[in-house]
């Protein structure tokens, strides 16, 4: 199923795309190094890890606090 997994800031803006494309159901390991798609370090704040699946919308959302 086509999936987009990303990190979003408090305003809902995409900060980093961790994965985009076809994903098989099951467990997957992803790591975020605290940078944007452009490579800059993100400032302290609240971010959200979000999984969106084609035809289903957002299926998971987790809060991340960077200090």
Number of strands: 4
Write out the strand line-up for the largest beta sheet, numbering strands in chain order: 2-1-3-4
Order of helices and strands: EEEE
Number of helices: 0
**Largest β sheet strand count, sense and barrel closure:** 4 strands, antiparallel
Q: Helical proportion?
A: under 10%
CATH architecture: Sandwich
Quote the distance from N terminus to C terminus. Answer: 34 Å
Provide a concise account of the structure shown.
With 67 residues, this protein is mainly β. The protein contains no helices and 4 strands.
Describe the fold and architecture.
It is globular and about 35 Å long. It has a single domain, classed as Immunoglobulin-like (Sandwich), CATH 2.60.40. The mean pLDDT is 94. A 4-stranded antiparallel beta sheet has the order 2-1-3-4, with no helix packed on it. It has strands at 2-9, 14-22, 45-53, 57-66. It has 67 residues and is mainly β. β1 (2-9) and β2 (14-22) form a beta hairpin. It contains no helices and 4 strands.
For the structure shown, list the relevant keywords:
67 residues; Immunoglobulin-like; globular; 4-stranded antiparallel beta sheet; mainly beta
Present the secondary structure layout:
Blueprint: E1 2-9, E2 14-22, E3 45-53, E4 57-66
Antiparallel strand pairs: 1-2, 1-3, 3-4
